[in-house]
Amino acid sequence: MAAVATAWSPLRSSSKEVYCGDLEGAPARLGRAQSAYGALQGGILERRRSWGDAKASPRSKEDTSKPASTEKCRTAPNASFENGINARPPVPSVDERPFDSSAISLSLPPPPDQNKRAGRNSGKHVRMPAAPYDSTARRSSCPVLAIPPTIFHSSRNFAPTDEEDRISEDDEEYDNNRGVVTPADDELLQKAKAAEQQPVVWPERNDEEFERGRALLKTLLCDALSFDADDMAHLVLQIFEECGIPENVGITTSKLQRFIIGVRDRMLDNPYHNWTHIFDVTQTTYCLACKCGLMDRLSSMQRFALITSALCHDLEHPGVNNPFLVASRSDLATLYNDRSVLENHHCCRAFQLMLHSEIQLLSDFASADYTVFRSVVLNNILATDMARHGEYTTKLKRLTEAGTPLEERHLDSQFAMEVIIKCADTSNVLKPFNVAKKWAVRVTDEFFLQGDLERANGMEVTPTCDRQVQERVALQKGFYDFVIGPYYSKVAALLPELASLLDQIKVNREMWNSYDDKMLMDELGSSYLARLPGIGTDGPLKLSVATWNVAAVNNNPFEYWITHQSGEYAKLMNDVQRFVDNPGGRDFVVSEVLTDEMFAELKHDMSKHGFPGLDELERRWVEDYRDRCAISGFLKDKAIGSKRLVSMPDRITNTINSDGRIIYRPSVISGFEGEMGHIPVWWQKWREYTFRTDVHTLDRLSPGAYKVQAVCKMIEPIRHAKYPAITMEEEAISIPLQVLALAIFDCVLVRMLQIIAPRTWQPLKHSLCDAFNKNKSQQVINILAKSYDDADIIFIQEAAASFVDHAKQGLGSKYMVLRPYVLDGYRNQNSMILARKDKFIEGSRADLTEQVGRLAGGRWTAPGDLCAIAIKGVDGSRYLLASFHGDTNGLATIPVLKALNEAFTKSYPDHIVIFGLDANTHKQNSVNCQGIADFQQKFSEMGFASCWGPSPGVHTWTTRNARTYLQPQLQKAVGISDAARKGEVNLKDWIIFYGNQMQAVDSARDNTGNREFAESMVFPTLKSFRRITPLSLACLSVMRTTTTLSARPLGDVRG
């Protein structure tokens, strides 16, 4: 029901732009390879995949693959319901773009806790508690969707002492984590097929609730709000079985279970368009189709397609309607040419899910069966576009007009299915009034949240979504009078079996005459909408707040000196440092490791990819690089660092992930875990990865478009205008020059470690990869669940997109995961916010990220850097919460802070502002570096205060780390003896708020994960704290005067 908010009220469009898009997609390919691997790949957005009304518990029951059901409904020919599948023109295929595998939990969980079960829905907009994220219980939606294996298993004497010199040479934020997909090979195909044999983690059935629901499936008395998520999953499966599963197409119980769980967990946290709505429409479709006799007249394939359509009709609904997506110029609207945007999106997502290599619901369908099934599903889902409502009403009117010949008054089966699913999609009006009014509040809540989003983004507010002028009851009356009444009267005239529906509609419409908004909210407001019982209207006076840059992207296990208890680590790193500082007679010539034969192979590979300037590259190889000393002449060459000849291609090719799969460049400084002891063998792996591994990457120049290319083709030119150290001649051949420099660098590191520690360096690297590169999100969740479960707000920066799922699974019982609409799918560095459910009202949030980003000027923020959310607290206050990760030198911090201040001043003066950020502030201030003191002065002028008090000392640091000699920017390396003294020690992490709204009662730092701080410890540490930044936390006292905040001295924000 995507456009119901504007179905009977004109939309006032806006020319102002707000991004609400979806940059996913490339044509999916049908067939054997797709069913094994290719159908469900790609995508850069990490979408919210949960249901708004209930959350499944982690209990499970194994079910082997077996036929789901025998056919129970037989086809009976009838003149009134002729088979019209081929009577309608074929629907153009929607854009079947690769599926974002992170949409489903891609890991096998431990055995579930059999004592846990999802709570009652009870009609509240509240996520049901999930099991704690620990070793014994973890809610995973579809555990058999395991991550396919990766292709490859898994710095100097001149180090500057001046801090500014060191940090100013930092590489810029770069898209080193592109969305990619590698092609399936035979092994992956076999593993995908074998996945069907794995047991499904399917929720344990509550027999009492199941029997209650089953008895109501064919009635309009089935109240979806009375069931929890597990009950609804079981009842959906029951509907499929009662309808009869088509025979000889390979649909098994386990496939259906995977499919149902996949749909459930892809539904978003919307007040209305959520998992409960999906079940409600599916059950009502079944009920109405049975009542009017349609179900008996459809073939088994049509019945299966009808129920599948209902189950997927709002898949991944974002909580806004089609006109909003068009007015905001979203990429989805662009992709679907402004026509049935959401419905096309639902179709696309539905088939991507069904074709997923680990679901394969349609894998055994013959071509003809697939064509019929797809046509029915597409037509049915597209019919739910409320912009087409008039079209259907007109056609029904024509069929029921007095002058229409009797023989023409019939429905072909396809049109009949569309009519029924449209009825089900608006069926709240058919339910008893005590149910209908709850749904009415839910849908108006969602409308009003869209209006808040429009207002926040400078768009003209859709009339039906404006909470400032609209009344809920008036909206319902209009919906009954202008939308529901005319449509159902025509349906009843054509299908007499459904004439009784009009009686309930008339009863409900009459009931609304006796209501106003106050009466409605008096009845439902405290018990139904409060969502957070047990807290009075006065609310909490204090909030416990934490901020943490979790540094998800740190792909080199050797990059930072770590606190490590192993003597082997200290010996290896000391030996590397001594070798680089004073190679002496152990230095070797570059051509000893990258031989002329290997260069010839390199040139040949680059020639096949059409790289320019290879003759010039060969000349430079012969005259320059070939005979250099590997350590003193290459690794320690500052020009190579300033030209970014190694660091730039390393960032792009080191680690590439998408669809839950991660591939690594065979290198000492990546997560590659294959054997690297023998250079000739390693070299072939390096060439295979660089030149013959095709990856699926987003085309940054064409939003929404994808291209398949080799890893080497991802490397981009280095421009002289940006990096003056590189000459114009070098710029012309900068891509092959980077490939050559990277090959030399990787070869040199392998040989150097073979010389230093031939037997120990690889096992040690594997242990570091296990500690730092694997299960990063789970490590963070474990610390938060263990030590910070009492925090009211946790600001997170630089989290992987997959952290959203991990947080929902591990912390979802206590926290909402507030995230921007657009997540970063390139660098995989995202800011987000965890907000306690007993302190904030879940259905009241609005995403202000794009608005604040535009106020900052756009260039200061990339996708994922900022998360700004407006949300209402149970204390009655409105809050503006923001989380931000600044650039390396902190130059973006002040512009973003000014933008937040401007948004508050102009649009949200009644909100309490709390800002958790990694400001990247430094001891020294300059035009190229944001200093701590200058930052403090500027935010104070805007009326802000911080958790560190009016004048934080230089010894209040939140970053203490140092780079080793095993990373591509050797000029930044610090010796082990100087790690504590010369490493980066700065105050970077802040919690900021308006001084007349809040005050910091207490503040602290934690670099152990146990709410303790070790002042002299260099981190990360191998055991307790594996992140490079600590947590910062504060207890903030909310002042009572914040109920009216308009008269506030804010200072000048123009400078």
Automatic annotation (TrEMBL):
Pfam family, one: PDEase_I
Single Gene Ontology MF annotation: metal ion binding
Keyword Iron-sulfur: no
Cofactor annotation remark: Binds 2 divalent metal cations per subunit. Site 1 may preferentially bind zinc ions, while site 2 has a preference for magnesium and/or manganese ions.
Keyword line: Hydrolase, Metal-binding
UniProt feature, compositional bias: Basic residues: 117-127
Keyword Metal-binding attached: yes
Its EC number(s): 3.1.4.-
Protein name: Phosphodiesterase
